[in-house]
């Protein structure tokens, strides 16, 4: 028995639900997934982002998407920072807070993050 073909598309309006999703995986950390629902967008089934949407509807949807994206970025950054701090604590415990034979100055490391520092003897 062969599967039946899908029904033909119609132009009747429908409401689609969508979500903004992101996943993170690492060989050393627990995986996490971020997901937040987006507001429904009334569309026609044959053309999901058709011109039938009003400018107000499109603007509202894009505004919600932008807010959700900003919140997602904040949440992911917070989670990754927490994991980085945990990794640093684990590494410090293993190495005894020694880096190249010298004790790590966390404040100095933070001030010079991303910069090449030439230390004088």
UniProtKB/TrEMBL annotation:
InterPro entries listed in its UniProt record: EKC/KEOPS_Gon7
Feature: compositional bias, Pro residues: 1-11
Domain of life: Eukaryota
Biased composition, class Basic and acidic residues, residue ranges: 100-111
Biased composition (Polar residues): 19-32
Cellular compartments annotated: Chromosome, Telomere; Nucleus
Extent of Acidic residues compositional bias: 112-121
Residue ranges, compositional bias (Low complexity): 33-52
Region ranges (Disordered): 1-52, 91-121
Biological processes, Gene Ontology terms: tRNA processing
GO cellular component terms attached to this protein's record: chromosome, telomeric region; nucleus
Keywords: Activator, Chromosome, Nucleus, Telomere, Transcription, Transcription regulation, tRNA processing
Family of the protein in this entry: Belongs to the GON7 family.
Quaternary structure and partners: Component of the EKC/KEOPS complex composed of at least BUD32, CGI121, GON7, KAE1 and PCC1; the whole complex dimerizes.
The protein's role, per its UniProt record: Component of the EKC/KEOPS complex that is required for the formation of a threonylcarbamoyl group on adenosine at position 37 (t(6)A37) in tRNAs that read codons beginning with adenine. The complex is probably involved in the transfer of the threonylcarbamoyl moiety of threonylcarbamoyl-AMP (TC-AMP) to the N6 group of A37. GON7 likely plays a supporting role to the catalytic subunit KAE1 in the complex. The EKC/KEOPS complex also promotes both telomere uncapping and telomere elongation. The complex is required for efficient recruitment of transcriptional coactivators.
The name this protein goes by in its record: EKC/KEOPS complex subunit GON7
Species this chain originates from: Rhynchosporium secalis (Barley scald fungus)
């Amino acid at each position: 028995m062969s599967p039946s073909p899908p029904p033909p598309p119609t132009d009747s309006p429908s409401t689609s639900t969508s979500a903004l999703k992101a996943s993170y995986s690492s060989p050393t950390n627990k995986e996490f997934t971020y997901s937040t629902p987006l507001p429904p967008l009334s569309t026609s089934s044959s053309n999901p982002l058709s011109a039938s949407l009003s400018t107000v509807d499109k603007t509202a949807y894009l505004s919600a998407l932008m807010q959700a994206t900003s919140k997602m970025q904040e949440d992911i950054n917070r989670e990754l920072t927490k994991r980085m701090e945990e990794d640093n604590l684990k590494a410090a415990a293993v190495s005894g807070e020694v880096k190249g034979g010298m004790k790590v100055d966390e404040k100095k490391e933070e001030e010079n993050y991303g910069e090449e520092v030439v230390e004088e003897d």
